[in-house]
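User: I want to check something. If I give you two sequences, will you return the structure for each one separately, not as a complex?

Assistant: Yes, each is folded on its own. Here is the first sequence with its structure:
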Amino acid sequence: MSVSNGRESVPGRRPPASPMPQPGPVRARANRGRPPMPVIHQIAWVSLVVQLLIVGILISAAMYTGVPKPILTATVVYLVLAGLIRALLTTHHRRGMHFAREGRLELAIAEFQKSYEFFHRHAWLDELRYLCLLSTSRVSYREMGLLNLAYCDLWADRGEDAVKTYLRTIEEFPHSGLAWTGIKLFQQGGHDGERRAASSIAAGRLPPSIATPTATADVSIREAR
């Protein structure tokens, strides 16, 4: 992993080009032929237990202090807290999702990179995301950041960059079935980036284990909840 000015970044990535600003109608026409970007939410069911416990504590506190309508008050407090925490700590992830949905991939890549760097520096927040971020996502923000970077590269026809990022994901998260499946997509051919990646595998420049069959899974942009 390369380090620049104390900020860690995904190795082997080219700095995203600064896109020329385009009016809304121009972007709409440019993206009209692009299929909708699939977005998948993966919920960790154990996180729902944590959220219910937090709401229960808030209800108990409201009842103890004699607040009127304790259940409604506790629910509102929980929603406000969740909104504030995510607004403060997951800004780059949410911006990346916004840009990705609009097809503004270079801007999305820059935001996902920043999100990955933030949660890499504060890994404890990511590990305790059910409690600290009130998140229900099964996939960590670091893994989501890397997967979304790779997926944006895939959509931008930069297959080699996508493979490098998928490999980085596997290094950090060896059981990431989504990253393994992403590499399998390149092996199957498709657009030019996938064919170049398949050639790299055939030439032995990627680990041989990647050439083994893996379980099928959706390769889509990941969003936290």
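And separately, the second sequence with its own structure:
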Amino acid sequence: MKLKLNTSLQLRRIAVGIFSLLIILNIAAACELATAVKDATIDDIRTFFKNQKKKVITFVGYSGAEYEDKMELLEKAGRILDEFVASKTIVNIGATPEGIGAVYELAKRKGFITTGIVSTQAKKYNVALSPCVDYVFYVEDDTWGGFLKGSDRLSPTSSAMVENSDVLIGIGGGEVGRDELLAAKRSGKEVRFIPADMNHQKAREKAQKKGLPAPTSFDGAAGEAFKHQ
């Protein structure tokens, strides 16, 4: 029984590796575009989306924490994207390629316009942008997003994300994603949440670096918040 389980896990890892390689090879074909990058105010971003006259779907989830099962992430995101008409919809994420940013490439292959709203902290620390995003808006922000410390008010970046979205899709996610989803739900936006594990190895390594016990849950802050909703 143990041998069968180990073989199954090995085969799944091989399949994930092959799938990831195919995704990487397809990126060049799907993402031959020149990204328009702009430092933007909240009003600038609001005007941009208003002028597009399209439904905006925003995906939130893990970023640097990555996903334990990237293939499952893309399968779930793909099913959601298939519900919408590409010519009438914008796919918005946080501009970077890690974690949930993998959905950008999938969205481009399906014909969607893609946008990214991200804190100027990303520029400050030279964080790479996804090669599959059409428009990127840097928002002046002293934080990476989420609720401002000691309040239930969103930071400028997260405020722009939520305000300009018609539908927010959470697939796992940390504290910033949790705060955005909760704020969107509170404001009456359509919110969907799909549980997903963060990358187990990365989570263990992060805990070890901080001198913390090894994690026993990989649900992420968003998963914990939506567990009983």
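Because they were folded independently, the notes below concern the second chain alone. The chain has one domain: 35-226. The domain at 35-226 is CATH 3.40.50.450 (Rossmann fold).
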